Each structure stands twice: as structure tokens, then as C-alpha cells.
Amino acid sequence: MTERLFYEDSYIDTFQAAVLECQPDGEQYRVVLDKTAFFPEGGGQYSDTGVLGTAKVVDVQEKGGVIYHMTEEAIPLGACVTGRIDWQQRFMKMQQHTGEHIVSGLVHTAFGYNNVGFHLGSMDCTMDFNGEITKEELLEIEQKANEILVRNLEVQVTYPSKDELESLEYRSKIEIEGQVRIVTIPGCDVCACCAPHVRCTGEIGQIKLTNVQRYKGGVRVTMLCGFRALADYNRKLQAARRISAALCAKEDETAEAVVHLQEECTDLKRTIGRLQRELLGYKVKEVPPEEEAVCLFEPDLDGEAPRLLMNLVLDAGHLLCAVFFGGNDGNYRYVIGSKSLNLREMVRDLNETFNGRGGGKPEMVQGSLLGDENELRVWMKEKARILGHE
Ligand SMILES: [Zn+2]
Predict the structure, then answer these.
(1) Which of 121, 277, 306, 317 shows the smallest number of beta carbons within 10 Å?
(2) Nearest to residue 80, comparing CAs of 103, 52, 110?
């Protein structure tokens, strides 16, 4: 069994230990010490990182009471080594974990729900509860949680005897064998837990519940505590300022400004649509009435417009209409229609001749091809002549 210094004091960030074992493991080394302050991965929380001497500790795992430190360098056996954990990361995790106990305790008291899943990730922290919580209820929980921070309550860690445990009411996610470690936040929560916690609730700084969503018959709540909440605030403030400047609106009036902008955009689209239909009407008028196979090259048309133009030409009584659009380096897209001809065979020939792809219904085909405007005009005219006489 490795002696766990984080049980004694979760604020130990530097310690001396004897190296009992150092085994190569892939490209890394697996180091066992007589004691450690490194908290291993477990209970939804990722492991501490840091250094042993000069060797970087990239992962820490626990198996059968022994704690294994995965390092990037070998460490001489028997030597006394100085361990240093990445304190900024560890303290941040302590803020999240104690924050989780406060929120879970408040939810348990208010609704009777249990925390059935906890994940402390590198970006945020999620808690799953086995019951519904609305956004409004979550705001109330958040308010109460922050009141508990302001009261700066002492976080108590105790090791009750079996008898004491029997009369104690506490939250617990799993059956625990052996000595149970109880973490108490007075008046808020009592929970069995092995993880390092802050000494007083004030050290958490702030609890922000950023999201609640339905999850497995209950809800998943996302939380940011302490410096994470501050970093999130700063990111969002920066975004709010940029949006505010871009919209020329006050920071707290950007939502209304966006709605206004969307309305303007819808009006503009409507106007563009109307003008485009008018323009297409003029284009149709320019087509000589006697022309049977109409071939139009319209590089600037996109969206619905090419098909609209084709239909207008056909409505004017022409036998066939091909609209070629796009057209970067001869890379055209096409839409071809006819009210009387079957275009399926024709489009196969077209694709074969001009390295294209596409198809459709007998009365309308579309696709893309590679071709020269003049060659396409000649080809279409000839094809329409043959088709028209079949
Ligand atoms: Zn816990």
C-alpha cells in the first residue's frame, strides 16, 4: 500500500519519498513510491500531473492500494526523490470537486435526487442527477451554492467508526469497503469521498452552473468553479464586446440588435428575389422567339435562379432550355429542361462528351461538366435537332 499524503493534507504540493519500483512500460516508466501526494485517476476525476525529481509525471493510476506514477524518464531505485505536483491544476480540481459536493448536497436536499454520475474533465465538470431540474430551479441552486461560498464554511474530513456510520446519513455513490472517509460541509452536505478538497468553501470563489440538459431519464448539469468560471467570464465578455462593436449596440442590447439585423436580412432577401425574377424576365425576352434549343451561359446565377430562368424560357414556348452557370475554368453546372422531350439519354451523352456527372427526370436534368462555351452551344443545338425529329 502506498501511503497517501493527500488524505493527511490536500495542500501538500511538494514531498520526499523513497523509490520502491521503476519498471519500463512502453515508452514510459511505472514508478512506485513509499508515499505520494499525487492523486490518481478515479471517481470521475483525472489524475494529478507534475514531476518526480526531473522526470515528468504524465499519469497516475491506482491498483490494489498501490499508486503507480507514469513518468517520461527512469528514476534510480532506492533513491529519495522530491515530488512536486502541478499545484495550479490540483487546486483548480479541488475547487471543482468541493463545488460538486455543495451543488449535489443542495439538489439532494431540495429534490431528493442523487448524483449518479460525476465527471471532472479538463474543460468543465458535469453532474448527472436522477430527476428533472428546470433552468429556473438551477438558478436557485446556483444562488444558494454561492451563498454557501460566502459563508466560508469549513470543509470537514472525518473517518467515522462502523457504529458511527450506521447512525450517520450521508450520500455515497458506491458500496465502500474498509475505512470510510466522510467529507462534510456543515448544513449542506455529508458525502463519502476520497478526493482532495479545499479547506473552506470561500476558496472555491464562485460556482457557475452553465447548462442543464435531459440525460438518461434525469438531467446533466455542467458547472464551472473558481478560476475556470473567471476564465469563462472573460472569454464571454470578450465575445460580447466584439459582438457589441460589430453591431454598434450596447453590450446588453446585442440580442435585440441581432433580431433587428435578421429582420433586415429577410427583407433584403425578399427584395433581391423580386429583382432577380424581374431580371430573369428580361433575359427571357432577349431570347429570339424562333430559337428551339435555348442555351444560356449565366456565370453569376446560383441557388434557385438557374432553374427559375429555365422554366421561364420553357413557359415562353421554347422546345428545350439549358442553363450553364458557375463556370470557373470551364467547370460548369447545368440544368436542362424540356416540356416534350425525354432528356435522360441526352444527359448521358452530354456527361460522356464533357466529362460530366448528373441526371434527373425525363423533363429535367442537372449536374456539372467541364467544357467550352462554343463547343457546348454547338453540341446542344445538334442534339436538340436530332431529338426534335425523333
Ligand atoms: Zn467527492
Answers:
(1) 317
(2) 52
Residues 6+ apart with CB under 8 A from 237: none
Are 20 and 33 in contact by the 8 Å Cβ rule? The answer is yes
pLDDT, tens digit (0-9, with 9 covering 90-100), for 120-145:
998 999 999 999 999 999 999 999 99
CA of 101 to the centre of ligand 1 (A): 6
Centroid of ligand 1 to alpha carbon of 148 (angstroms): 17
Cβ pair 196, 43 in contact under 8 A: no
> Left, alpha or beta for 369 (phi > 0: left; psi -120 to 50: alpha)?
beta
Contact by Cβ (8 Å): 320, 377: no
| The C-alpha cell that represents 24 in the structure block | 519500463
Q: How many C-beta atoms lie closer than 10 Å to residue 73's C-beta?
A: 14
Q: Tell me the C-alpha distance between 181 and 158, whole Å.
A: 6
282 CA distance to ligand 1 middle (Å): 73
The three three-digit cell numbers of residue 361, written as one number: 427526370
pLDDT tens-digit profile of 77-109? 988 999 999 999 999 999 999 999 999 999 999
Question: 140: alpha, beta or left, given left = phi > 0 and alpha = psi -120 to 50?
Answer: alpha
Q: How far is Cα 49 from Cα 30, in angstroms, rounded to an integer?
A: 14
pLDDT at position 177: 66
Cα(220) to centroid(ligand 1), Å? 17
**CA-to-CA distance for 247 and 230, rounded, in angstroms?**
25
Using alpha carbons, select from 25, 98, 88 the residue that is nearest to residue 59: 25
Asked whether the predicted pLDDT for residue 328 surpasses 90, the reply is no
